[in-house]
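Researcher: Checking consistency across runs. Here is Cytochrome c peroxidase again:
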Amino acid sequence: MKLSQLLVKPTLLPLSLLLGSLITISTASADSKYVAQPGHPSLQKWLLPDEPPYPADNKPSPARIALGKQLYFDPRIGRDGNMSCATCHSPMLGWSDGLPTAKGFKSQVLGRASPVITNTAFNSLQMWDGRKKSLEDQATGPMEATVEMNTDMIALKRLLNNNGYREAFAEAYPGEPVNATTAGKAIAAFERTIISNNSAFDRWVKGDTNAMSVQQVQGFKLFIDPDKGNCEVCHSAPNFTDNGFHNVGLASYGKENPDMGRYAQKPIRILKGAFKTPTLRDIELSAPYFHDGSSSTLMEAVQHYNRGGEVKQDLSPNIKPLKLNQQEMEAIVAFMKALTTPQKPFKLPLLPLE
C-alpha cells in the first residue's frame, strides 16, 4: 500500500513557491560551513523534533493512534482480503517492502518503489510525485487505486462497522462518520508515530563524542562540503530532505516513455523526471534505493551521484560529477548508516473480529 520520506541558505527559483516543491540550486553559501564537533551549536539545526506537525482536526491521541495501528495492519481492507498498509510498508523492512518496485492488487508489479513512511509526518507533500498534500490524503489513496489495494468500499464500510471497530471509532473520533475518510485520519495518526530522531548522529550532535566513528565524522564533513559530496543541497536539516523534487539522472529516465514524476502534477520543464527527495534517516534499513529501486546498496547510490548521474537530459543542476575517491565514498556510506535510530521491539495489534 502506498502510504504510504539544501546546502543551507539555497537560492530558490522564483517558480518554486508556485510549485510547492522547493526546487533548490546550490550556491555553496558560507552558511553551510558547520563546525563538525560533537555538541557544537552550529549543528543544532539537524535535531528533529519528537512531535511532527498535525492538522487541527486530527490531533493525536492514544485512541486515534491505536485505531490507526489496527487499520494499518488489517489485511481485510484490501479487496482480496490479504493486503494491508504493512504489506508494502513493513516495520520488518524499514517501513518499505524490500522490492525494487511495489506489488499491488493481485501481485501486479507497479512502476515505483514503495515509499518509506519513516518521518513522512514531516513532509510538506506526500508520495514520490507529491500528488497528496497530507498523510490523511495519502492514507486513503491506495484504497481507491485499482492497481493497489483496490478496496471494495461497501465491504470496507461493513468491516469498519463491526463491533470492535465501531467502538474504537466512537472513542477516537466521537461524532464523526465511520468511513474511509475517518479511517485515513486514524492511519495518519499512527503514521505520525513512526519517527527516527535518535540515531548515532543525533547523539553526536547533542554532545556524545563516542556516538560516531572517525570515519562517520569524516563522512559527515564530506556530506556537507559543497566542494565534495554536496549531499546537503537536497538532503538538508533536520530530516535530511529538502521536501523538493529533482531529476537525478537515473538510467530509467533514458528509456522510452519514462516516468515523468512531479511533471505529471506540475507540467513545468524543470520538474520533468523529478521525484521527491527521500529522507536519509534510517536509510540503511530500506534498500533498494531511488523511486525505481535501481540501486541495491548505499554504495551503489553514492557511486551514481559520484558519476553525476547516468542520463543528462532534464538533469537537476545540482547533480554534477563529484570526483570522490573510494575512501571518501565509503566514509559517506558509513555516515548514512549513523542515521539509523535503534529499532525497538514492535508489537502487532489485535484486530477486531468480524
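Researcher: Does this match what you'd expect to see?
Model: One thing to look at in this run: The radius of gyration is 20 Å.
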